Hints:
CATH architecture of the largest domain: 3-Layer(aba) Sandwich
Strand content: 15-25%
Number of helices: 9
Structural class: alpha/beta
Number of domains: 2
Strand order of the largest sheet: 2-1-6-5-7
CATH topology of the largest domain: Alpha/beta knot
Bound molecules: S-adenosylmethionine
Radius of gyration: 23 Å
Amino acid sequence: MWWTMRIDVLTLFPELFEAPLKTSLLGKAAQEGLLEVAVTNVRDFATDRHRTVDDAPYGGGPGMVMRCEPLAAAIESLAGRNSLRRVALMSPRGRRLDQSLVCELANEPDLVLVCARYEGVDERVSATLCTDEISIGDYVLSGGELPALVIIEAISRMLPGVVGDWESVTTDSFYSGLLGPPQYTRPPVFRGIEVPAVLREGNHAAIERWRRKEALRTTRARRPDLLNHCSEEDRLLLDELAQEEAERQRGEQS
Ligand SMILES: C[S@@+](CC[C@H](N)C(=O)[O-])C[C@H]1O[C@@H](n2cnc3c(N)ncnc32)[C@H](O)[C@@H]1O
């Protein structure tokens, strides 16, 4: 049984979400009722004549800070439509996004993503209204809109029915615990590099084994930290890889 996940986004720039939410798999997820994303402009909750949402920081310093009241009103306006169980502030100080956090969020019936601008939000917003702070990496963007879109797209891939071929999700980098194996399509030879013979021979068990081994080879070279919890079967394949490489080296030296 498929259900509709609802994501509410709070932002000062709703227009940044228009094209991405209509395009490709996100557009399809919305059309098929698998994912509903509602974007709300925080400025609509400013109460003064100039619709001000920011103010100078206490204690001085550069830039402006997003005020509590419009954000609090925007978040609280969602009650009834959103359970408010997970209200995540986009923040470089937050928990770093990875596939396990994406899967955790995709299991929620709904979610709120709060996009800040300026120097960020008044600390009392995160202290009293948010359940999570999420960072998409150790660098600083000008706003939380792109991080929110990254989270929405990553979650959408985890929702049953969004990616037609579920096997393509389970073999993706990180989902399987490893980086993905190399992929090839036609032509069989490009600039002197041949597609590995095993992929053209149609033996599915051999292809699967080759792919797992190549995923392990790439992961060992680029992200050895991911191998810390690998299975006994993967350990045996890693030993096999090490033996093959040692033999190749001996062959080259003799
Ligand atoms: C210019 S940044 C503020 C940076 C803040 N002064 C700091 O040093 O952490 C404005 C907003 O963009 C969003 N943002 C920037 N980089 C981000 C990241 N790596 N992950 C998630 N959100 C980010 C956050 O909502 C942040 O409050």
